[in-house]
Amino acid sequence: MKIGDRVSVIDQNLKGTITSVKGSQVFFRDEHGFVHQYDVRQLLIVDPSIYDEVKTIQRKEKTKTPISKNKNLHRALDLHFEQLVETPELYSAAERIAIQREKLVQTVEDCRKNKVRKLEIIHGIGDGVLQKMVHDYLEAQTHIEFEDHDFFFHSTGSVTVFFHK
């Protein structure tokens, strides 16, 4: 380690630029101007250039389209993640909820465009994250009716939406 190197403290959210080195003791200045002293064994050199050669791959996965028998009367949307993509284990929790929300938005817009009267959204019971996202989205919509399950929260795995003309 030498003066000018960027370092980060192991097991702490603290980093800065080395100002001096005395034996095994390293002094560095953090982003706020404070000087810190640590043993060389407690520091890691921060080198963003190690990522220059790493290639990232954007993957585009085909999504499954839910099948409905009668487009204008009733549709069902199953938001269980394994119903939406072919390889669900490759996605983080944040990616999953984002894809589920996007599918919900697309389906509601498609129902409005095609004058569908009723949509059943299957979200499951689980820990309620998906159910809350669906409920919050529907609350923000106009010209629809749906059952508000505040009293029976977590007791049902679906919600039925009725579209007004």
Please describe what this structure looks like.
The protein is of the alpha+beta class. The chain folds into two domains: 6-48; 74-163, 2-Layer Sandwich (Ribosomal Protein S8, Chain: A, domain 1). 22% of the residues lie in helices and 27% in strands. The protein has three helices and nine strands. A five-stranded antiparallel sheet has the order 4-3-2-1-5, with no helix packed on it. Strands 6-7-9-8 form a four-stranded mixed sheet. A hairpin with a 2-residue loop joins strand 2 and strand 3. Helix 2 (93-113) packs parallel to helix 3 (129-139). The chain is elongated. The mean pLDDT is 83.
Strand content: 25-35%
The top-level CATH class of the largest domain is Alpha Beta
Mean pLDDT: 83
> Helix/strand/pairing class, anyone?
alpha+beta
Task: Report the total helices.
Answer: 3
The H/E string reads EEEEEEHHEHEE
Strand order across the largest sheet = 4-3-2-1-5
Report the CATH architecture of the largest domain: 2-Layer Sandwich
Number of domains: 2
Query: How many strand units?
Result: 9
Which fold does the CATH topology of the largest domain refer to? Ribosomal Protein S8, Chain: A, domain 1
State the major sheet. 5 strands, antiparallel
Overall 3D shape = elongated
Helix content: 10-25%
Q: Which regions are unreliable across 5 or more consecutive residues at pLDDT < 50?
A: none
**Roughly how many Å apart are the termini?**
70 Å
Instruction: Supply Rg.
Output: 26 Å
Question: What descriptors fit this protein?
Answer:
elongated, 5-stranded antiparallel β-sheet, Ribosomal Protein S8, Chain: A, domain 1, 2 domains, 27% strand, 165 residues, 4-stranded mixed β-sheet
